[in-house]
Structures are given as C-alpha cells and as structure tokens.
Design brief:
The protein is mostly helical. About 80% of the residues lie in helices and about 0% in strands. The chain contains 4 helices and no strands. The protein is elongated and about 45 Å long. The protein starts with 8 loop residues before the first helix and ends with a helix.
Length: about 90
Amino acid sequence: MAKHSDTSWKQDHPSTLLSNSVQKAERSVKQAMSHPEEIAVEHAFNSIAHAENALLNAEQQNEHMDTVEQNRAHLERLKQQLNETQDVVEDR
C-alpha cells in the first residue's frame, strides 16, 4: 500500500494544481461561450476563482515562476472571454 504524507498532493505540487485549475477554467469558459446560459457563466466564474487561488498559492511557494506567469496571462484572457460571454447572456 502507498504511503500518504501529512500534506495533500495539492499542497505538495502547487504549480501542477495551478495548471490543472487553469485547464478546468478554460473548459468551463469554452462551455459558457458555446452555451451562453447564466449557470454556465457562473460555473466558469467559479472555476476562474479557483484557478486564481491556485495562482496565489503557486506564487507564495515560488513555484516555476515562468509557468506561473504564463498561467496568469492565460487566466486574464479567459476572464476577458467570459466577461464578453456574460454581456451576451445579460443582453438576452
């Protein structure tokens, strides 16, 4: 049986958590863009918020700062796309 550490896998690898969170946020934003409904937009905002928390954690841990910066830029683009999608939903 595998040994388990006292810290979770997420705490052990903040840069991996960040990358995975950004990918999940990207999927959520794409879903909201293809099906612009209020619940999809809300879910995408929640995914982005989770990714931003992972970003802060990775920064605090000084994890692969080049990757952190790439993910920061990607999150900014996703937020812009989601804001545009939210405008479409609100205009309905």
